[in-house]
Amino acid sequence: MFPLLYHTHHCLHSQDIPFWLSLADHCNGPILELGCGTGRVLLPLARAGRQVFGIDNDPAMLSFLSHSIPGELSQQVSLVQADFTRFCLKKQFELIIMPCNTYSTLTEPDRRATIECLRNQLSPAGIFAVSMPNPYLLRHLPAHAEPEVEESFCLPTNGQPVQVSSAWNRTQDVFTLNWYYDLLFPDGSVERISACIQHQLTPVKELLEEMREIGLHPDTLYGNFDPSEYTQTADHLIILASPVNNLP
Ligand SMILES: C[S@@+](CC[C@H](N)C(=O)[O-])C[C@H]1O[C@@H](n2cnc3c(N)ncnc32)[C@H](O)[C@@H]1O
Fold first, then answer.
1. Are residues 72 and 96 in the same domain?
2. Is 248 within a domain?
3. Do 111 and 194 belong together in one domain?
4. Domain containing 88 — which CATH number?
5. Distance between CA 138 and CA 22 in Å, rounded?
6. Is the Cβ atom of 35 under 6 angstroms away from ligand 1?
7. How far apart are the CA of 27 and the centre of ligand 1, in A?
8. pLDDT confidence of residue 245
9. What distance in angstroms lies between residue 57's CA and the mean position of ligand 1's atoms?
């Protein structure tokens, strides 16, 4: 049930898709998505004619995605169940992406391990593109927010209404976000499915420094998918990084 809820909910927020498609237009060859989930981004890339590889460690998300791939795209999509902090594919990519706030859920050792791995898979002229919530913005939100209804949608499978609310707790270093999906039944009963996501509030400077230390150069920062320049008040932090090719 969770992959269906995740997919239906997050497909309401697909303002980022044209950004990923446009990045793909500037790169040749296959594209690798780390944490491809239910294919919210991967499938539009495949529909645009690209060869796409998706890595995810959650079998339920991958199973949902593999059942959603239309027959005519099946030759273009390769899915790998693996941990992206320790993966190895026998391929080089000009574009590796990690959309939708996955990167900020990683602790420093996991970020470093992921960058080490993907650095080996990037071709010399390649780009790693990653988007996350702006840590500066999250750091300045109140320390606590009670659950608040944000939006509603109906499941595409059976039309069942679902109400989405969220609540958070913030410490100096971690922003803990709780999503509540309330499935509303005709008899008035409600079934709640929850998901808890922790975003690390690592300062931008540290994130960039980590990348440099591992041989990626963060060339471009955006603050939104328009794509506008990164500022401290931007909604997002989007980093485009390329390999430093003269490592010792
Ligand atoms: C927020 S979802 C993003 C899904 C998709 N990229 C999108 O844009 O909708 C994060 C995904 O990353 C996957 N994930 C998290 N940690 C992972 C890891 N260490 N290795 C592989 N996949 C991971 C989760 O299973 C989940 O499907």
1. yes
2. no
3. no
4. 3.40.50.150
5. 27
6. yes
7. 23
8. 77
9. 7
